[in-house]
Amino acid sequence: MYSTVYSGGINGIGCYMAKVEIDLSRALPAWDMVGKLSHEVIEAKERVKVALKNAGIVIPPLHITINISPANIRKSGTGYDLPIALGIVTALGFIPEDILEGILVIGELGLDGSVAPVKGILPIVSAAAAHGFKTCIVPNENAAEASYASGINVIGVSCFEEAMHTITDLSDASYVTPRNIAQMIATQDFEEDFSDVSGQAVCKRAALIAAAGFHHMFISGPPGSGKTMIAKRLRTIMPPLTVDECIEVSGIYSIAGKLTCDDPIITRRPYQSPHHAATLSSLTGGGYDLHPGILSLCHRGILFLDELPEFSRECIEALREPLENKQIQMSRVSGSVSYPADFLLVAAANPCPCGFYPDRNRCNCTEHEIRRYNSRISGPIRDRIDIIVSSEKMDISGLTGSSDPNGSSEHMRGLVLKARSIQEERFKNTPYRYNSHIRAADIGHFCPLDEESMHYAEEVYRSMNLSARSYHKLLRVARTIADLEESEHIRISDLAEAVCYRT
Amino acid sequence: MENMIGSKLSFREKCCLYFFQGCEYIGNATIKRLFNHFGSFEEAYSAGENELRSVLNQNTLEKMLAERSKKDIVLEYDKVRQKNIRHIYIEDDDYPEKLRGIPDAPIALLVAGSLPNPLVPSVAIIGARSCSEYGNYMAREYASALSGAGIQIISGMAAGIDGIAQTSALSAGGRSFAVLGNGPDVCYPRSNESLYRRLLLNGGIISEYCLGSSGLPWHFPVRNRIISGLSDALLVMEAKEKSGTLITVDSALEQGRDIYALPGRTCDKLSSGCNNLIRQGAGILIDPEEFLGEFLHTLSSVGAYSGFLKAKSSLVRTPLTEHKNGSELRISFSSPEEKCVYDILDFNPKSMDQIVSAVNSSIPMPLPIVLQRLTGLCMKGLVENISGTNYRRKV
Ligand SMILES: Nc1ncnc2c1ncn2[C@@H]1O[C@H](COP(=O)(O)OP(=O)(O)OP(=O)(O)O)[C@@H](O)[C@H]1O
Ligand SMILES: [Mg+2]
Ligand SMILES: [Zn+2]
């Protein structure tokens, strides 16, 4: 007696399709499971036995052998419970054998036969659709999430018996239909808006440039000066995610187990602001069960690091790789996995340990203390930040003043969108998407200067004693400013403004 | 034995003197009393307990006896010579004449590098350790103007004003001398390591404390009398109401040195000490050139440094005859906006936001224009950028 059930699993950010083979033979009763399984997969045995018994199915004393292939990938998680249970009842003849062909099954079983949700459903089901599966059976609580995978019918089940009945009579099954993502994206709105921020003209302008060219930015300013406010509002002026990006981001959240049935898909750009006491592994992810960390949960969104110098050195250093490669590589015994981590970094810090420098009436920090405080942000991180601005504590007149209509998120987003479409045009057929991505070798090509502005740029380079690296940063930021002004060429005025944000 | 040449003390005497200097609990005055009582340092060193009791109190005596029994004074003294440090006794020929006259003159000095040239005037520039950008800037201005005129700069090599002034003096090609509150071989604060090394080459490190001695809190007020003692005038750049800097001012007053203070805004705590000094009659520092002229004039009127002054006669200026005026009018601005931005700035750093809102209450203009004008002013050298996002006037 033999049966096969198809399932799938997560390996880092990628998925694989798994074949669960079950053989029942008349030999000494035993239960063997093979296929590079981690302990929670092997524990399926106990859950399945009891769940079947409580569903009224008695497993006769047989030698049960279960093999989950491909054997070269380490399998983890509890999603194999349901396929194993269905495989056993099929091998026992309760279900006709050919019914399971072309169906992906995944879900955890409780002892009472209930089917519990598992992590990573959305990417697994998407991968199954790509592999040609037509139908999938997933835990009810994961059904909404799974429905966003296109080209596959999704059936949600809440207990084992329901799964058995559904399978035996597929023609009766009702498929879960997704909500329209494009519409959700179009109608989303944010609680926060840039018009909430009074004053801070320079910070807002810098935020606009950062959003337009995907430039990492750094805000230095005293406590309570609105650094968090600015960072939180940055995503309100970024272009909305595309449908593909929604699926991509939701996939990461799915693997991290952060999608719920109420919120089965992410349609807003993520915003993450870990506390400075965050551990290295919470940022980068990994761990025993290989989960994505905060740096991946803000993929395509904003990573806000408040009080950057207070983060541990190893955490700050861990930013280097994602800032450089837009992903995080994890080496494990069983091979290496990588998580995407393409975020816009907004870092904030006080200008000195007490926060009030250069107001010497309040700040007593010595030069040495100030230097040491700032040196915690190492050169390599600084080098990847294109824009530095300071935020100013508002006096009361600033806070009560009327708001500027050009300072609303909607207005600013309009400008960003225009600058983004110019960049799209520019970077067609190139590996780049934004001005901040342009590598040094291509700066000359994408940031052309006419004779006049070339002369000016040289003057800046000399008089400000810039390094080649900061000169390139200057040109990238100037490129974005010119795009915001819809100017084809980088003009002197764009360079002059960019100089003020130099790092 | 080279450094004994010209010394009024024998080698053995110097060893014994150095021993007493190395006793933390025996001060400068006590060493002098010991010498007066016993007639020589060696006598004092080898004196019996009962003899010593008439000069030292019981506590000091016990500590000294304990230290005497475990130290090899010749070996200790040898370290001084090995490090190329001179030990100069108050009666020695090369002991600075200016210091001999001050109350509580140090009985001996340890000098790494050289001592100030007695034929050239010296000015002390001192001030707060956590200074403002304004103080920082002004310390640089005064130090480089004075050392450019050949004047030696004396200070305490502390963080803030002291170190800034001395660094600028050296960078302007002048000579500078640091008086330390710790041993001359100890660099404190560590952040002034490179300044310390430069001072050894183009000036000197002076201290009354023994090798390896760390700066105990009460050393610093005491060494301040040497800073003012070595100087012909004392410039205070920034000081809070109650600060160590004002201790130096007190010793300078006691020694009859001229005191000048840099005025500041009345609301700035860092300027309150200086403003008060001015109210009490200190000279006011308005402009480095003006000060220089006035200072040299004072020197020449008392007939000091005649050789030096002869060479610098063009700089001597009677006070308050010439004023620089209309310096602002000479600046040519490229646009009214540029002038507007410049007018808003002063020598205290302002953040971009402060500048933008100040500009908007005078001539409203779009933010990018303000930033562009700011960059223009920086490139003309009229304005400078401080700590990334703040700006202030340079001229
Ligand atoms: N420019 C501003 N406009 C409107 N409200 C402001 C502004 N700046 C500060 N606030 C008010 O002050 C509060 C503190 O702001 P926020 O948390 O952004 O400051 P912060 O710079 O991040 O401070 P900290 O360094 O303490 O984290 C805000 O909730 C807001 O109510
Ligand atoms: Mg905050
Ligand atoms: Zn401070």
Properties at a glance:
heterodimer; A: 503 residues; alpha/beta; Ribosomal Protein S5, domain 2; Rossmann fold; Helicase, Ruva Protein, domain 3; 3 domains; 5-stranded parallel sheet; 4-stranded mixed sheet; 22 helices; 18 strands; 17% strand; B: 395 residues; DNA polymerase, domain 1; Arc Repressor Mutant, subunit A; 9-stranded mixed sheet; 18 helices; 12 strands; 46% helix; 12% strand; binds adenosine-5'-triphosphate; binds magnesium ion; binds zinc ion
What does this protein structure show overall?
The complex is a heterodimer of chains A (503) and B (395). Chain A has 503 residues and is of the alpha/beta class. Chain A has three domains: 2-172, Ribosomal Protein S5, domain 2 (2-Layer Sandwich), CATH 3.30.230; 186-416, Rossmann fold, CATH 3.40.50.300; 438-503, Helicase, Ruva Protein, domain 3, CATH 1.10.8. Helix content of chain A is 39%, strand content 17%. Chain A has helices spanning 39-42, 44-54, 81-91, 121-130, 140-146, 160-168, 181-187, 201-213, 227-233, 243-255, 280-284, 294-297, 313-318, 320-325, 367-375, 379-383, 396-400, 409-426, 440-446, 451-463, 468-484, 492-500; strands spanning 2-11, 14-25, 30-34, 63-69, 103-105, 108-109, 115-116, 135-139, 153-157, 217-220, 271-272, 285-286, 291-292, 302-305, 327-332, 335-340, 344-349, 387-390. In chain A, the strands form six sheets. Chain A has a five-stranded parallel beta sheet. In chain A, strand 1 (2-11) and strand 2 form a beta hairpin. Chain B has 395 residues and is an alpha/beta fold. Chain B folds into three domains: 11-82, DNA polymerase, domain 1 (Orthogonal Bundle), CATH 1.10.150; 116-301, Rossmann fold (3-Layer(aba) Sandwich), CATH 3.40.50; 323-393, Arc Repressor Mutant, subunit A (Orthogonal Bundle). In chain B, the strands form two sheets. A nine-stranded mixed beta sheet of chain B has the order 1-2-6-5-4-3-7-8-9, sandwiched between helices. The longest helix of chain B is centred in the middle third of the chain and has 16 residues, at 133-148. The termini of chain B are far apart. Adenosine-5'-triphosphate binds next to helix 9 of chain A.
